[in-house]
Amino acid sequence: MSHFSLDKYYGEEVSLEKLEQEAKTGDLLLFYGSHALSKLIGFMEQMPLSHIAMVWRVEQEHVELLPLDTPHLLESDYTEREGFVLGKKHGGVQVARSLLTRIKQYEGKIWWKPLLRCEDRVERSRTLKYYLSKNCGVPYNIDPWCWLASGLREFRDDTDAQLPEGFHCIALVASALRAMGVFHKEGFSPHNVQFVDIVLSERLKMLISDNEKFVYSPHLHLVWDG
Questions:
Q1: How many CB atoms lie within 10 A of CB 225?
Q2: Which of 19, 25, 34, 139 has the most CB atoms less than 10 A away?
Q3: How far is the C-alpha of 130 from the C-alpha of 215, rounded, in Å?
Q4: Domain 7-225's class?
């Protein structure tokens, strides 16, 4: 099984300082770790990616434990991480207090895919806050080793009912974007979204509810190689 090449999607590298200044709610970070599990996930996905998370910048309304106008990271992971708030000790849906701290702890590569156009971003950030109040602490719904042993594709079906309650990383991001109105409200299951749907612009546009209101960069900008 050969990897799908990402070479034509790579944009210019971006410093962590620029990322911290410019990252906005709805931006995506894509990860490819150096450990065995990440390599196995990449092998199953047929591309060098193993994890995805979404930026959340609290711009106006106060959120307990999270400072204003600072980028945080929303993700679902099977382990609890240091520096995370708004989650539970068993992992699952979590929000990192500091985007940069989370990045600097990572062993592997991280790319930034910014949401270039987003109408009513502040209101959508407020919607995301409500979504998180309902979903933070929801468990990671698949043991990653069992997931791989059983075959990744087997878990992707036409309905959410085939999966235990909870979110793996891609499903969480897709579900959050749907709650914000960026992705279609109806007609697709967040659990069916794959890395290739996020990376390829033509496939990503099919998930977006209005391609005039919401535009993602076609490029992946390397922000970390640790």
A1: 12
A2: 25
A3: 23
A4: alpha beta
Report angle CA 153, 91, 94 to the nearest 5 degrees.
95
Distances (CA, A) of 14 to 17, 18, 99, 116: 8, 6, 15, 15
Nearest to 111 by CA among 40, 7, 193: 7
Give yes or no for a contact between 199 and 47, defined as CB atoms under 8 angstroms apart: yes
CA dihedral over 103, 214, 65, 168, signed as positive or negative: negative
Q: Is the pTM of this model over 0.90?
A: no
Report yes or no: 19 and 73 within 8 Å, Cβ to Cβ. Answer: no
pLDDT in tens, 6-64: 899 999 999 999 999 999 999 999 999 999 888 888 888 889 999 999 999 877 665 66
- State pLDDT tens for residues 128-180: 888 988 888 787 766 665 555 555 544 444 434 344 467 889 999 999 999 99
From start to end of 10-167, where are the E strands?
A: 28-33, 51-57, 71-77, 84-85, 92-96, 108-113, 115-118
